[in-house]
């Protein structure tokens, strides 16, 4: 058997165990019931036909489910990309969405083949949590308008400032108040469902909440908007040549990079979380990145939503007892059968109920329980998290994530540039200033504050021999300080730079000693 074939067959060896096929079959039904309302809800919130969410879920099961990478992780449309997809559709149009997703998939495949999957794990956890929190906030703010049957503003700031007016309009309008009641009722079911007996909780909470909201709406004939149904074939719109030609624009490429970064990071972070839930085969991150890229390429060809690995479906898959990829493949088959045989069933689902599901999902994206402990233990990380989230709300997804990444890099540079300044006095009045740690330009203000407060009429030695790192900017500034600090007639400041073979450049150290010596001779002549 070739190694290529073994990669596909190895995860299925567990099917030889007694009862394994039955467990995977039942797990696939659970994942299907969890995925169905989420696929539809994410699509509607993204501003695309509901059927496109099902298409992405089907591809996540029938295509990505067969590929090696993570054995139990389930892929499909995710709430984490809802905001970015909505912005892309609003700016470039629905036709361009397929082209953007297609290029995103191609980039993911290239990154996986170049073995870059492991590097996505190096992204700061605070940035990822801040990204998810920002997505959650924007998702909540936007779906509050959908719950009331109102059109949501485009920017996050407008969503916030428009809330008082939305509240007034909702309370004063019968239709809006009815829709909001359906939405909040859906949220209440989602919150209370985990507290019910285990026998009741066999039905997934999102499915139960949407089913109850649909039954109440239909039973009482409430005047609320429902999902618009177009049919699976009619909803699929492959990108045209004109759409592919537009991929060269800077704005579109920026969106593609945002899709690639966020989808890849969310998928691989999800894989790490799923690996902790079971004792089966571990995830191969490069192969998983390729699998996600293949899935997104197919979704792009079909003009569907982008996909990521979804932690909600993946955890449901593991908890339902799945042992092999068969469960996620079958869940894609159930989605396909539903979309082909029962498409009209989507038309009876209230939009407010789906909005309630997404508001609940948005709340779960905000790490409320982790923020306070994080702020106490690592204040800088909490600042990165909060800044990333706020930046996403105020600007957009791509700019917010970039701001978070830059801030994380700056924080890391600041932490690693820790330096300690010690001043001691020797016999005869000579002062010795010793620097330890990493002397970089980031710490220059603190270093110079101590040095400039030193007396100018006493001999001073600046000892840098134990510094772990001395960058060029810091060394040059300290040399200039040594040349100019002491008054004329006082012995010049003596610098002791790191010896040869350490962090400083020996020729530069010799040059510095030479300049200090010339300065001392000049003072003597005066």
Automatic annotation (TrEMBL):
Localization per record: Membrane
Membrane-traversing stretches: 25-45, 52-72, 92-114, 126-146, 166-193, 205-222, 247-269, 332-361, 382-410
Tagged with keyword Secreted = no
Region (Disordered), start-end ranges: 505-526
What this protein is called in its record is SulP family inorganic anion transporter
- State one Pfam family annotation: Sulfate_transp
- Please list the residue ranges annotated as the SLC26A/SulP transporter domain: 22-387
Where does the protein principally reside? membrane
Q: Where is the composition biased (Basic and acidic residues)?
A: 514-526
From which residue to which does the signal peptide run?
A: none
For the biological process aspect of GO, one term held by this record is: transmembrane transport
Taxonomy-wise, where does this protein's organism fall, top ranks first? Bacteria, Bacillati, Actinomycetota, Actinomycetes, Kitasatosporales
Say if the entry is tagged with keyword Transmembrane helix.
yes
**Can you tell which superkingdom this protein's organism belongs to?**
Bacteria
Q: Which UniProt keywords apply?
A: Membrane, Transmembrane, Transmembrane helix
Q: Name one GO cellular component term.
A: membrane
Topology in membrane: Multi-pass membrane protein
């Amino acid at each position: 058997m070739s190694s290529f074939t073994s990669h596909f067959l190895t995860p299925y060896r567990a099917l030889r165990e007694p009862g394994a096929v039955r467990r995977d079959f039942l797990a696939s039904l659970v994942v299907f019931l969890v995925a169905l309302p989420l696929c539809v809800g994410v699509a509607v919130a993204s501003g695309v036909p509901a059927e496109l969410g099902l298409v992405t879920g089907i591809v996540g099961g029938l295509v990505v489910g067969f590929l090696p990478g993570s054995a139990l992780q389930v892929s499909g449309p995710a709430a984490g990309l809802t905001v970015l997809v909505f912005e892309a559709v609003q700016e470039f149009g629905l036709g361009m969405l397929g082209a953007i997703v297609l290029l995103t998939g191609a980039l993911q495949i290239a990154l996986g083949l170049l073995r870059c999957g492991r590097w996505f794990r190096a992204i700061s956890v605070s940035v990822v949590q801040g990204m998810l929190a920002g997505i959650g906030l924007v998702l909540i703010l936007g779906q509050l308008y959908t719950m009331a049957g109102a059109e949501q503003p485009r920017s996050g700031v407008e969503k916030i400032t428009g809330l008082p007016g939305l509240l007034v309009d909702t309370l004063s309008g019968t239709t809006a108040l009815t829709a909001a009641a359906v939405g909040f009722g859906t949220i209440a079911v989602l919150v209370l469902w985990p507290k019910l007996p285990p026998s009741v909780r066999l039905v997934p909470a999102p499915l139960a909440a949407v089913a109850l909201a649909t039954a109440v709406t239909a039973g009482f004939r409430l005047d609320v908007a429902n999902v618009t149904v177009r049919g699976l074939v009619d909803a699929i719109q492959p990108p045209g040549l004109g759409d592919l030609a537009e991929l060269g624009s800077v704005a579109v490429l920026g969106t593609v990079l945002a899709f690639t970064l966020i989808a890849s990071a969310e998928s691989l972070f999800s894989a790490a979380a799923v690996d902790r839930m079971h004792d089966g085969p571990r995830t191969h991150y490069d192969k998983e990145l390729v699998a996600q890229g293949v899935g997104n390429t197919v979704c792009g060809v079909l003009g569907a939503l982008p996909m990521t690995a979804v932690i909600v479906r993946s955890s449901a898959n593991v908890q339902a007892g799945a042992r092999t990829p068969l469960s996620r493949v079958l869940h894609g088959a159930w989605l396909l059968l539903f979309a082909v045989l029962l498409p009209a069933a989507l038309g009876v689902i209230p939009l407010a109920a789906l909005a309630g599901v997404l508001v609940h999902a948005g709340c779960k994206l905000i790490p409320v329980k982790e923020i306070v402990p994080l702020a106490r233990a690592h204040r800088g990380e909490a600042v990165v998290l909060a800044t990333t989230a706020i930046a996403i709300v105020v600007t957009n997804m791509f700019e917010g994530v970039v701001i978070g990444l830059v801030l994380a890099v700056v924080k890391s540079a600041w932490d690693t540039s820790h330096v300690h300044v010690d001043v001691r006095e020797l016999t005869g009045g000579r002062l010795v200033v010793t620097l330890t740690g990493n002397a970089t330009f980031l710490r220059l203000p603190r270093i110079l504050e101590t040095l400039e407060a030193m007396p100018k009429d006493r001999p001073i030695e600046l000892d840098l021999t134990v510094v772990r790192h001395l960058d060029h900017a810091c060394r040059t500034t300290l040399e200039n300080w040594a040349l100019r600090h002491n008054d004329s007639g006082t012995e010049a400041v003596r610098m002791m730079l790191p010896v040869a073979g350490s962090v400083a450049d020996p020729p530069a150290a010799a040059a510095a000693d030479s300049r200090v010596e010339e300065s001392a001779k000049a003072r003597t002549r005066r």
